Amino acid sequence: MSKIRLLSNNKSIFMLIVSMLIIIIMDSSLTIFCTPRSSRIFNISNTELYLIYSIIFIISNIVLFNIVKNITSNLNKYYYFIVLIVQSLLSITLLTIYGQMILYSNYSNFFIFVIVYTSFLSSIGFLSILTIKLLRWFSLSPNYSVLLYGIAISFFILNTIIGLVYVTQALSTHSDIIKPISCRAIFASLFNINPDLSIYLSNLYDITSIISFIALWFVTIFMLKQYSRNIGKIKYWILVSIPLIFL
Description:
The protein is mainly α.
């Protein structure tokens, strides 16, 4: 029974890694929307490309949610309900935007605000809960690895808050109704209101993003260093260095 459970957990962890890699690849390839249709591997429009990305996002969220639910047997029902509501709202909003693009050849900027604030605020909320739990754990049983994790996640919270402010300012430059427009015009409009503040927030977001990533990576390799004896130091450092490729 224990072997079956172990195999199931290993399969879930593998699927979790694959799903996260898919999301990372999708996030890093968003520039394809600015690539001329004739230059793409598949001759599809931005509207069709948006639908593909939305479906992959929705499916990935469902897979990730079920994996975490299976791995974590004591998942709080309250958290389960909140995550379910958040993911459902995001999925419905994404499909609503697609429907507007098909029917009216435009979409409301309001739905972008819904997606941004739902995503960022839920992320800030859950990361804050995790940080509080780690600090409480540290106060009950002092462990500097736990403290370092709490500090590293705090940087992620700061980075997310800065990102929310930056994206809000960028979205405020757009009209209420978003119509088809070139990427050059979109990028030019991002700094119309307050270019100095936009550049400052952009740089600050990049800096805090790098710091939070490196901090969490450093704490992780510190905690897992004991396993280097089992798999060998060379294999260990190759494995833990892979995340740096996406930095």
